[in-house]
Amino acid sequence: MRLGALVLPQQSWREARHTWTRLEELGFDVGYSADHLTHPTVAGRWWADGWTTLAAAAGVTDTMRLGTLVASAAVRSPAVLARASATLQDISDGRFVLGLGAGLPADVLADRGELVGVRDLWDRYEESVSALRALWLGGSTWEGRVVRVEGVQPSAHAPGRLPPPVVISAGGPRGFDLAARQGDGWVTFGGAALAELDGAGWWKALARQSRRVTVACERIGRDPAAIGRAVLVGWGTLRPLASAQALADTVGEAAEAGFDEVVVYAPVGEPGGRFWADPDVVAEAVSSLRR
Questions:
Q1: Smallest Cα–Cα separation from 251: which of 259, 291, 287?
Q2: Within a 10 A sphere around the Cβ of 274, how many other Cβ atoms?
Q3: Going by DSSP bridges, is the β-strand pair 228-233/185-188 parallel, antiparallel, or unpaired?
Q4: What are phi and psi of 100, to 5 degrees?
Q5: 181-202 mean pLDDT
Q6: How far apart are CA 167 and CA 189, in angstroms?
Q7: Residue 29: partners with Cβ closer than 8 Å, 6 or more residues away
Q8: Tens of pLDDT along 26-58?
Q9: For the chain, give me the number of helices (H) and strands (E)?
């Protein structure tokens, strides 16, 4: 079971660099950063750019993989995604993971003052993945119904580099099909509708999602085992870093539900906050798993 941590970019880099190096020291397999332009949970607080943060994190880590959880297709064009991802793949010496999602209407409003619906975001998301793949294969032009790229001339990758894996964020049928067709991996946090479920109910719902990804793969003749499966735990009622036993239980539930990676929120904020955890407890929990 891989263990990942989502580092919410709420610290100055003077503080955040220690968070990233500590995650690697503790034995986390991958560290992620988010990609929102705006979010109601951080009103009035600092929110760093996730892409720039990952480039800096690559310079202070050596072995831990680094990724977006998740990059926003709503505000990043395929050409920008392709170039930024290939650059991070080079800077990190091949350690980058492109987690990609449809994005949020609020980010589009912040980015270009447009009101868009979820269906529009998903139309763009699906085509953006296809366009991104085409650019990475060396194409210069791709056109769909809502996405078009043309005249992209530079090389798709730095010399000697392969494209990073693409992990598709999805919690519904349309996304499961996209993950089966285009994903190297799939990631879910369950979805907002599941946030208030207790542990047993939440894990049961996540197991159903995993089975539906399997069915989507089988429908097109793809080996379901070819897709990595990650679950982000901690947005709802579960607190996986409350104790060593809580993390061990989380890993066990995730494995039973069909996942091979558990992602937790790196501790941030103050005691009592949603994403806070005692650093000593976190160190003990991770160490227990690695024994």
A1: 259
A2: 12
A3: parallel
A4: -130, 135
A5: 94
A6: 13
A7: 2, 3, 4, 64, 65, 261
A8: 999 999 999 999 988 888 999 999 999 999 999
A9: 9, 10
* Tokens (6 digits) for 196: 């208030």
Q: What CA–CA distance (Å, rounded) separates 150 from 144? A: 12
- Average pLDDT, whole number, for the chain? 96
At residue 270 the predicted structure's pLDDT band, cuts being 50, 70 and 90, is: confident
Decide: pTM greater than 0.90: yes
**Model confidence at 219, in pLDDT bands (50, 70, 90)?**
very high
Q: Compute CA distances 55 → 3, 15, 58, 105, 156, whole Å.
A: 21, 16, 5, 26, 18
Q: What number is the average pLDDT over the span 80-106?
A: 98
pLDDT at 258: 97
Q: What angle do CA 112, 113, 116 make, to 5 degrees?
A: 95
Task: Please state, in angstroms and rounded to a whole number, the distance separating the CA atoms of residues 122 and 256.
Answer: 30
φ, ψ (nearest 5 deg) of residue 277:
-150, 150
- Residue 33: strand, helix, or coil: strand
Cβ atoms of 249 and 279 within 8 Å: the answer is no
**CA distances for 140 relative to 1, 134, 195, 227, angstroms:** 38, 8, 42, 28
Contacts of 6 (CB under 8 A, 6+ apart): 32, 33, 34, 69, 232, 263, 264, 265, 266
Nearest to 261 by CA among 193, 178, 165: 165
CA pair distance 176, 159, nearest whole angstrom:
33
